[in-house]
Amino acid sequence: MNELGRLELIRESLVAVVNEMRANVIRSSYSSIIYEGHDFSCALVTADGRLVAQGQADNPIHIFAVPYSAVEVLKTFGDDIHEGDIFLHNDPYTGGTHLNDILMLYPVFHNGRLAMFMATRCHWGDVGGMTPGSLSGRVKEVYQEGIRIVPTRICERGRMNEAFIGLLFNNMRIERERRGDFNTMLGTSRKAADHIGRLFTRFGGDALLDAVEELIDRAEKVMRAQLSRVPDGTYYAEGYLDSDGHGPDPLVGRLKLTIDGDCIIADFTGSAPQTGGPTNVGPAMALNAVASLVKSYLDPHTAVNHGSFNPIEVINPPGSFLNATLPAPCGGMAECRALMVAMMVSALGQALPEKLVGDLKGGANHVYISGPRPGPNSDQADIFLLYEYPAGGTGATLGMDGNHAVRAFPEGDFNAVQAVEIAESQCPVRIERYGLRDNSCGDGEFRGGCGMRRDIRILADGASLSVLTDHAIIPPFGVDGGYSGDANRFVVIRNGKVVQPSPIPGKVGGFPLLKGDIVRMESAGGGGYGDPLKRDPERVRRDVYLGYLNVKRVRDRYGVVLDNAGAVDAVATETERSRVRAGRVTIPIQLANEDELDGSRRRITVSAATAKRLGVGERDLIELTAPTSAAALRGWVHIAEQPGSDSGDAGEELRLGPLGLAILGREPGDTVELRAVKSTVS
Questions:
Q1: Could you tell me if 507 and 500 are in contact, meaning their C-beta atoms sit under 8 angstroms apart?
Q2: Cys-Cys crosslink for 347: which of 142, 235, 404, 562, Cβ 3.0 to 4.6 Å?
Q3: C-alpha angle 570-571-575 in degrees, rounded to nearest 5
Q4: For the chain, what is the domain count?
Q5: Quick check: is 463 in a domain?
Q6: Would you say residue 161 lies in a domain?
Q7: Do the bridges between strand 263-267 and strand 312-315 make them parallel or antiparallel, or are there none, so unpaired?
Q8: pTM attached to this predicted model
Q9: pLDDT band at 414, cuts 50/70/90?
Q10: CB-CB contact of 596 with 614 (8 Å)
């Protein structure tokens, strides 16, 4: 066998180890979020903390943070790492994601020296904290989210620290599940270590480790070659999270993306300060978001290892909600990461318009329903815990509609939702409706995917609801003139009436449920791509036939008229499209000295007449868009009389600062369309 063939055999052998780890975890774990949801990841890491291999289906949310955690373990223990040692970690400030994601690092030695780590990161259904499931939209500090594990040696030279293990599980709910998942991770790591030992024997230890370095070097060369094909330049993006869970103000994220030859620099300077609510994330997630996008866009087929990340630099000053420090809670890590992914989509889409895609559903959509487990043999500590994570629609792209109610590409093979059979067999609930959420997709020449609707009836007394999500106020954006998808919506139906479980949509902490209540989950739709008036009327007709859109929606947004038989009326459609086009609010833009800001919000000043045409008032959310725009520019209305106000937008000019113009990709004198955005932000 030639050298290249041998190298490929080693690469495939290492990937096979990780895939075997995945199979072991799925088949032996106790928690449904792991064996059904696939909320876990496995990896191999070098002795100095670089990623060697991962399974192709693993969750990037976890996996790109593993090297950061491994480095922190090495910083803590240095040379004091021995055969038989095992480490745990979940601390978000030193490379963890959020407290529910527990990482086990299992060192493997060859000829007496540290050679590699086996890494398994699993979402544990509960790690303590103020509410069952640990993830709450109403927390104020990390200590309310559960037990925090800095790099900790739980087994030394083969001897388990039973005192620490007891302390760990005595601070978590449903101890049987937690211990079961722990033993799954332990058994998986041991089996993987045995497999690596056989590879050392087969290929020779030094030869295998040399091959690892060659594979990392080759991956770096591939990524640098791909980056070299991207036009050099600086690209800007801006995005918002709904709130911190305690007040009405949104959180702004900002990105300056620089492509320079075969390097890429992502700078998040200027993002909002960290908050007292759960919408924060630690330092590992910025690289995680950037790396997963760069890898997906530029080199999706090469096996994942650390070489793909070497050309990436991230600038992310500590103290923002995108790089939080103690004691900021970080339960909403997935929501923060989704925002960074969305900004990367916008910025990279400016450089590569053919890869532009509408915004996604906005995060993990954590929903916990819990309560005392009914039955004569249950005790006070015996609770049920239903973890729901409803997927939403994905964004549309050039030539392709978004997908309905599935996980997005940065989430691996994480499942769309908890299986009905699992939910009903393990918890006192009944799933009364489960299907697509009609009219939720972002409209466009290519429409976004629809979200889902799921109704869960509570069959026992004493239950409670916690929700941690985003895009429940500010919906997913469209691109290239496409429209937003519908926002997430999580409510309780009690005696036929809608009950809001929290004053802040999407942020719920321990809301008391009554027997007979229905928890209704309606996930967001994906953002659209392109002008809806350019969509083929036959495709619009089919969307109505399939129940994705209704007749009124397609007439108002797509300008498509259907006759009584459901067929396209071509003549009426042409007339209607002209009417819809004429009704749009378009205004030329001019350069202002600086961008208007109102705290964390971008402020957009319009005349009273224009505000009336848009149907908006002071501090309502609007967006500016134009063909070829990588993302809509969003801001909050400020009404001021301007020349031309008597006639609406006729003669009116919109003034934008340099950053706003850069995000839109417009020049002074260009025309943009103004739209109201469905939002409850005030």
A1: no
A2: 235
A3: 115
A4: 4
A5: yes
A6: yes
A7: parallel
A8: 0.95
A9: confident
A10: no
Does 433 share its domain with 543? no
Q: How much is the CA Rg of the chain, to the nearest whole Å?
A: 26
Complete edge-to-edge strand list for the sheet that includes strand 452-458: 429-436, 452-458, 518-522, 489-494, 497-499
In this prediction, what percent of the chain has a pLDDT beyond 70?
96
Domain limits at 624? 585-676
In terms of domains, do 184 and 39 share one?
yes
Residue 124 lies in a domain: yes
Q: Are residues 637 and 517 in the same domain?
A: no
Of 181, 202, 222, the one marking the end of a domain is: 222
562 with 448, same domain?
Answer: no
Same domain, 387 and 404: yes
Do 674 and 610 touch, CB atoms closer than 8 A? Answer: yes
In a shared domain, residues 422 and 362: yes
**What's the whole-number average pLDDT of the chain?**
93
Query: Which residues lie across from 257 on neighbouring strands?
Result: 235, 266
pLDDT on residue 413: 72
Sign for the pseudo-dihedral over CA of 608, 610, 612, 616: negative
Q: Do residue 640 and residue 499 come from a single domain? A: no
Residues 536 and 672 grouped into a single domain: no
Which of 391, 403, 99, 349 is closest to 239 using CA atoms? Answer: 349
**Which tokens go with 387?**
């973890």
Instruction: Decide: helix, strand or coil at residue 34.
Output: helix
The amino acid occupying position 375 is: G
Q: Residue 682 pLDDT more than 70? A: no
The answer as to whether 599 is a domain residue is yes
**Termini Cα distance of the chain:** 68
CATH number for the domain that contains residue 669: 2.40.40.20
**Cα dihedral 535, 540, 542, 547 sign:** positive
The last residue of one of the domains, among 156, 190, 222, is 222
Element (H, E) at 453: strand 452-458
Paired sense of beta strands 383-388 and 366-372, if any: antiparallel
Selected residue with higher pLDDT from 61 and 330: 330
> What DSSP letter does each residue of 187-239 carry, written as one string?
HHHHHHHHHHHHHHHHH-HHHHHHHHHHHHHHHHHHHHHHHHTSPPEEEEEEE
601 with 636: CB under 8 angstroms? yes
Separation in Å, CA 432 to CA 386, 458, 490, 496, 519: 15, 10, 16, 14, 10
